[in-house]
Structures are given as C-alpha cells and as structure tokens.
Amino acid sequence: MGKFIVSVNGNSYQVEVVEVLDWPAPQASLESPPEARPAQKETPSVASGSPVIREAGAVFSPMPGTVLNINVKKGDEVKKGQVLLTVEAMKMENEIPAPADGKVLELFVSKGSTVKKGDLLVSLG
C-alpha cells in the first residue's frame, strides 16, 4: 500500500493506493461497506435531451444549461415527441420533447433562462 497526494483542480487530496496482484480485483475490496456509504437519492437515468418526468404532465430539465428556444406557448396543444424547447449544454443544443400528448398549462422558463438539472420547465395537462 502506498500513500500519495493527488491535486485536482487546485485541491490536494491524500489517497492510499493498494497494489492488486491478481486482476480483476474483487469488487468488495474496492468499495466501502454499504452501511458506510452515504444514502443517495435515486434519480432516473436519462439520455441526453430526454425530459425527466417525476409527475404526470411535469417536464423537468435533464441537464444544466441555457434555454435557447421555446417552441410552444401557454395553451398550445402538443403531441408526444414534439419539441417543446431547446437547452444548450456544453455547446450542444438539446431538444426537450413532450413526453405525451397534452396542452401546455404553464411555462416556467423563458428564452435565455439558466436551468439546473431537475428544474421544472413545462407543465402539460
């Protein structure tokens, strides 16, 4: 076992490294026991550009970014898959589609808004 200091983004961390002679190493030896890990809230795994849906009709941002375009307005009827808005993240434009047919009840963002992952974007009814 060796101790090292690793610098990441200007922050220094002391780490211990264990030499593994037979590969692959058993997973149990590389991870903390389950009771030692902090509890993590499960979030749905989403592909880039897919809306995160936590409740019927609510469309949440799948990523942090900036709203580039809004293709609908309050009262519009939309079809499943229709692009509601576009979010720019890491210089890529990500279209956010309607998860189901419905009517736009409310828009919670405007063009140029900065959003975080999980922010409510649109409510459909």
Describe this structure in words.
- The protein has two domains: 2-27, no CATH class; 58-124, OB fold (Dihydrolipoamide Acetyltransferase, E2P) (Beta Barrel), CATH 2.40.50.100.
- The chain contains one helix and ten strands; from the N terminus they run ββαββββββββ.
- The protein has one helix at residues 27-30, and strands at 2-8, 11-17, 58-60, 65-70, 77-78, 83-89, 92-97, 102-107, 114-115, 120-124.
- Strands 3-10-8-5 form a four-stranded antiparallel sheet, with no helix packed on it. A four-stranded antiparallel sheet has the order 7-6-4-9, with no helix packed on it. A two-stranded antiparallel sheet has the order 1-2.
- The longest helix is centred in the N-terminal third of the chain and has 4 residues, at 27-30.
- The radius of gyration is 21 Å and the shape is elongated.
- It starts with a strand and ends with a strand.
- Mean pLDDT is 78; it is low at 36-48.
